[in-house]
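Sample log: CRAL-TRIO domain-containing protein.
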Amino acid sequence: MLDRDPKTARIGEEILPFEIGHIPEYFQKKAEVELHETPEKIVQCTRKLKELAKRDDILCDVDFTDDILVQYLRMRKYDVDRALETLQTAVKFIRKYPENFCNFSFEETVKALTQHVLTIFPSRCQDGCAIFLIELDKWKLDQFSLREFKQLLVLVLFQALQMHPMTQVNGFKVIFDVKITSLRLLKILTPHNMWLLYHGTQECVPGRFKGIHIVNDSIVFKTAWLILKHFFSEKLKKRIHFHSSPKGLLDHFPKSVLPVSYAGEAEDYNPAQETWLKNVMTPEKLDKLGGGLFKNLEELL
């Protein structure tokens, strides 16, 4: 009942914009079926999770907003105990690596978007997922550091969740273009950095990663994959798809949402991305980023 075919999905009906501030009726039903979510459960579980957090040694000094608690509850399908464990993991991780979660720079972040290191698609997949494209070969380390890339991921993932409840319910899909011609990227594909990538995105960010699509395979990436695959859970491995050519993406994404360079029909996304970024990086929005998770991190630097 809740499956939609990407090849027949239509813009404005099954295909909705990335920036949508409400959850349409179809996706409310999806949240009820897949996440066991009801209005009553949101209230009851949020209250219980907040009470447990206040009594927890790791979480007691964090002033969580209700919104961030709902995000972790949705991530864990309203299993309050698992949501609590994930919050503990997230807080410990953030406090251990505070430099990745504060002091965001608009100038540096927008650079990655304009150079197409990371692209946010303006339309969602037919199943409601937000879609990101990461093109490794466009990442110039002398212009955009590893630390800045980590901050970019934190900012985009957390704001995509906080600003859009549709993303909380439906999750993300990521397309990785792993064509790499520069061997300089090999120096950052270390086991430690691979672990940080997996642990940070899969166990700390309150999002649901519904698919990872890898295109334009390369020898450099194959080397990194030998390391990276050992960190992935069996559940996530089943959601990783390797495509011999971009045309394989059409089995999973509507043609209308994919860029022309990836067998789709969509044009350049940069203007829309920059507008979104300016909005989510205002002082007021950054102050609310993370719903209490990122408060006072400068003191730990």
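Observation: The chain has a mean pLDDT of 91.
Observation: The first helix runs from residue 25 to 35.
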